[in-house]
Each structure stands twice: as C-alpha cells, then as structure tokens.
Design goal:
TIM Barrel, four-stranded mixed sheet, three-stranded parallel sheet, 12% strand, globular, Chitooligosaccharide deacetylase, PgdA-like, Glyco_hydro/deAcase_b/a-brl, NODB_dom
Length: 296
C-alpha cells in the first residue's frame, strides 16, 4: 500500500531545476569527452553497509584488495597508456591505506572527495556535513589536498548536501545521471551550485563484474561489457557529448576486468576526436566558456 499523504507531498516540479546542459565546445581538436574516474572505497564499501563487517575478515578482504593489488595495477595501466584520471577516495580509505593514496597523488592523478565512511546521504541524516568535513580534513592532513571535485557515496544526493558543497567551494560534483554533458546545478533557493559532470550508468564496473560473495549480480563476460562500452562511446562521440566512468579498483583491478579495461582504454585512446580528461580539466573547460559567455 502506498502512503497517500506522502504521495500528496511530492513536489510537482522537476527534481532538477537546472536548465539543460549547454553545448559548450570541447578543447580543439576534440569533439567529445571522457571523464576517466575511479571510486576508491576500500573496506569502507563494506562497513558502510554494516559496521559489523569490520570483524568479518574475508568480507573486508574484498575491499582490502584495492590497496594490495587493484590500485597499483591500475596506476601501472594508466602510466602505460599515458592517461591521467580522477580518483574519488573516501577519507577512511586514505587513513587506513595512506601509502595507496600517496601513490595515486604521486602519479599525478586528481584526488576527489568521496565522503569519509562511504555512508549513503539520505534526507534528514544529521551526519551529512560531518562526513563532508571529516573527508576534507583527512585529505588535507594526509595528502595536502584541497579537493575541487566530489562524488557522493552510493551516488546519492540531497539538497542539504548540494548546498553544503557549494558553501565549501566545491567546483564540481559527479553523481547525477540526468544528462550527457556538464551543467551548472541550481540550488533550492535558486542560487547557482557546483558544476555537474553527470555519470554514465553503463560505465559503472560494479554493475557488470563485482567479484564478491553473496552478490545478486552476475559477472558479465568481457565481450558483453566491451561491446556495451564501445557502442555507447561511439554514439556519444556522434552526439559530441561526454561519458563518465565509475571504476572501482576492487572490481576493475581484478585480472579479468583489468584486461577488459586495458582493451577499452586502448580503443578510447585511438579515437582522435575524444578528449580523455580529469574532472578538474572538464569542469575548468565548462567554467571558461561560462565566464566567456560562449553561446550554448
């Protein structure tokens, strides 16, 4: 049964009141873009579901794979392909695995904010700003980084979180799934918010190949995922739009997934019209054209 009173309280307005994304040009000579990004949750991916997992050591080992194997392998692959990416890291992962986080930074990649405990932001939760501040503090203390980009744990958002990010000066977020180009958020009071670099849902490797016990998801073979990723990339290139990856070292850092990612990124690099960039670079391009008044 539906709660009819709750249904009646749903606002009769779009959930996102920002105007459609402007078709700002990509840097020459490119006609489309890929935001290459990774989510580094480590064990916080599992403790955020159930704090009791901290004492279930095999469950925790799925997240621990990131620091021991997955992230080093991915860093080597990106170096081999001469690519720079954005790594959204939970504060917990930075505190627990400082050497892993330092290696990402040392390799020249962008570090983004991904919460502290990887907790789902839910409307009314009292800890949303505490998680935000603790993440900022950890990145500054451990890495000397003031992040300009944020990706919400579990990819979820609230208006309070969006306003808090604007107050903290975040340049861009990357969580929403409602466009194929960057756009500027509009806050609840009508004020401009951060730039959004929308996520491309099909490029979330967790959906296709998470190697974990008790997962209800099947592991799709390389041929299926590679076909899906290539087809979407080619269509987005025809549109002159952008794809955004959400890759996890505890998934794409596994041998069968790394081979798939190597083949896909090699293909992406072979596309002369595709700008493969970090979030800061793509958001900076948007801000440049916005400030210049470039026609959409």
């Amino acid at each position: 049964m539906h709660d009819r009173d709750a249904l009646a309280r749903i606002p009769l307005v779009p959930s996102n009141t920002a105007p459609p994304a402007p078709a700002y040009p990509w840097p020459a000579p490119y006609g489309a873009a890929m935001f290459l990004s990774f989510d580094v949750d480590a064990e916080s991916a599992w403790t955020s579901k159930d704090a009791g997992h901290a004492e279930r050591l095999v469950t925790m080992s799925y997240g621990g794979y990131e620091a021991r194997v997955g992230t080093p392998r991915l860093l080597a692959l990106l170096d081999q392909l001469d690519l720079k990416a954005t790594f959204f890291i939970t504060g917990w992962a930075v505190d627990a695995h400082p050497a892993m986080a330092e290696a990402i930074l040392r390799a020249g990649h962008e570090i983004g904010h991904h919460g502290y405990h990887h907790l789902l932001p839910d409307p009314g939760d009292p800890w949303i700003e505490e998680e935000l501040e603790r993440g900022f503090e950890t990145l500054a203390r451990r890495l000397g980084v003031v992040p300009v980009g944020y990706r919400a744990p579990y990819g979820e958002f609230t208006e309070g979180l969006r306003a808090a990010l604007a107050r903290r000066g975040i340049l861009y977020t990357s969580s929403f799934r409602d466009d194929v180009r960057p756009y500027r958020h509009r806050l609840g009071d009508g004020a401009p918010g951060p730039i959004e670099l929308p996520v491309t849902a099909s490029y979330d490797d967790w959906m296709h190949g998470l190697s974990a016990r008790f997962s209800p998801r099947p592991i799709f073979p390389r041929e299926h995922v590679l076909s899906l990723w290539k087809d979407e990339l080619d269509e987005v290139r025809d549109w002159g739009a952008m794809v955004t990856t959400v890759l996890h070292p505890q998934c794409s850092g596994r041998p069968m997934r790394l081979r798939l990612l190597r083949e896909f990124l090699t293909y992406a690099r072979s596309c002369p019209d595709l700008w493969i960039a970090t979030g800061a670079e793509i958001a900076g391009n948007f801000r440049h054209h916005e400030a210049a008044g470039t026609p959409a």
